Amino acid sequence: MKCRANALPLILYYKTMKYLNDYTKEETTRAFKKAGAFFAFSDKQFEEEKKEGVKYLSLGAGLICPEETAKQLMKDIANATENGIKQDIAENGAKKIIARELRNNEAFYTGDISDTMRTLSAYGFTTEKVTEIFNTMRVTEEC
């Protein structure tokens, strides 16, 4: 597939768009600190960070949290994600977000939107909406 001649400004625009992580980073960092959570990818890292007498849970992806604050941390992360999605939609709108994620997940190279759908699952965009934008972008060559 060839991109149209003036596609470069579009590509640069999408590279400078914020991602969900950009919207949630500060709020989740505050939540980690409040909960006493940290990341550890080895026993050595865990030993360096743990506090005596505290029982910890592994929440996945290297995230370690005191058992007593784990439920609240998960709620705070969910709230940060929800707030970030609302801000992303308010600033960028559905079409730009979907286009960003189609590009980021290389849907135009693979011809498959399933990775994009996983990325956007929390946004509530339908498969039909994502497919419509994908097909429109392919036809108009806004790749």
Keywords for this structure?
about 140 residues; mainly alpha; 3-stranded antiparallel beta sheet; 7 helices; 3 strands; about 65% helix; elongated
A few lines on this structure:
By secondary structure, the protein is mainly alpha-helical. It contains seven helices and three strands.
Q: Show unreliable segments.
A: 1-6
Percentage of residues in helical conformation:
55-70%
Kindly report the oligomeric state of this protein: single chain
Task: Compute the number of structural domains.
Answer: 1
Q: Give the distance, in angstroms, between the N- and C-terminal Cα atoms.
A: 9 Å
Shape: elongated
The SS-based structural class is mainly alpha
How many strands appear in the DSSP assignment? Answer: 3
Instruction: Give average pLDDT, whole number.
Output: 91
Computed CA radius of gyration, to the nearest angstrom: 19 Å
Order of adjacent strands in the largest pleated sheet: 1-3-2
Question: SSE layout and pairings?
Answer:
Layout: H1 7-16, H2 20-35, E1 38-39, H3 43-49, E2 56-60, E3 63-66, H4 67-104, H5 107-110, H6 114-119, H7 127-140
Antiparallel strand pairs: 1-3, 2-3
Helix pairs in contact: 2-4, 4-7
Q: Your description of this structure?
A:
- With 143 residues, this protein is mainly α.
- The chain has one domain.
- It is 66% helix and 8% strand.
- The protein has 7 helices and 3 strands; from the N terminus they run ααβαββαααα.
- A 3-stranded antiparallel sheet has the order 1-3-2.
- A hairpin with a 2-residue loop joins β2 and β3.
- α2 runs antiparallel to α4 and α4 runs parallel beside α7.
- The chain starts with 6 loop residues before the first helix and ends with a helix.
- The N terminus is likely disordered.
